[in-house]
Amino acid sequence: MPFGPVGGRAPGRSVGGPEVIDVVAIAVEELRKHYGPVRALDGLSFSVAAGEVFALLGPNGAGKTTAVEILEGHRRRTSGHVRVLGYDPATGGREYRERIGIVLQEAGFDEAFTVRELVRFYRGGYPRRLVVDDVIDLVGLGGKRDARVQTLSGGQRRRLDLALGLVGDPELLFLDEPTTGFDPSARRRAWDLVETLRDLGKTVLLTTHYMDEAEHLADRVGVVVAGRLIACGAPDGIGGQARASSEVAFRLPDGVAVAGLPDLGGPLVAQGAGWQVRTREPTAALHRLTGWALERRIVLADLRVTRPSLEDVYLELIGAEGTPDEAPVVGTGVS
């Protein structure tokens, strides 16, 4: 693999206490961006460790893209403090831009270029350069290296976006909805690529509406609503009380009355042909339920215990903030 090394220790973690970051790649404090009376960002603060994959989540209009554009140096902030790789993006200039890679939601290409020609052209703008054909192979476009851009499918163009963001061997990569339009196989390859970047010490900031993508890739996630950070932490740790409860679900045999069930630590709710209870003590609830069933020689069909997914917690968080009901994308997102 032709990527160069990047200094910095593994990212710190927060478990029930203040966040600890060993080497900071991105530091954002009280970031604000106003457009007249509209506050796109309203005191946003977070940090990203060197070598960390950090995902920004939030509904459309939450301010994610505005924040990322400020970090990239493409948009001026109204107020607040921002440092990325030790630079203020607003004044870092060419020296700063040479150390980052950017993959936009949509990029305009010259349709007459071939894939190889375009990657080679972008490569010329960086002092640290990767081998063109290696990058093309890395993003899964080896069979299209001599194809004109105009002949590429939407998913193939997204892979080309990735190649252009990587060819300068960046220390920090911004990925804005990186797998939109990918089929399931291409998404998995993109995930493998991001994991490879992490293993090599690269820092990745990504935005995505795919909850499974954030859960799979991110060391930490930050949820942004109305220009403010409302939650931040490991994908399996954010959400506070929402994460503390689990769901015990089961189905009773015909003729067995639900009224005879023991106290399971929460209200029973009908779920299709079965029942479910949400509880902060799933082990105790399961013990009481299975003990009751064994005593009566009752078989509980479809018995399962599940914790809230990142999607569940995300929807609860943005719902608590009074945001419009907008479901995240879950699954393959095939277009």
UniProtKB/TrEMBL annotation:
GO terms for biological process: response to antibiotic. It is found in: Cell membrane. GO terms for cellular component: plasma membrane. One of its GO terms (molecular function) is ATP hydrolysis activity. Keywords: Antibiotic resistance, ATP-binding, Cell membrane, Membrane, Nucleotide-binding, Translocase, Transport. It holds the Pfam family ABC_tran. It comes from the Bacteria. Residues 26-251 form the ABC transporter domain. The keyword Acyltransferase does not apply. SMART domains: AAA. It is a peripheral membrane protein. The keyword Cell wall biogenesis/degradation does not apply. PANTHER family: ABC TRANSPORTER ATP-BINDING PROTEIN. This is ABC transporter.
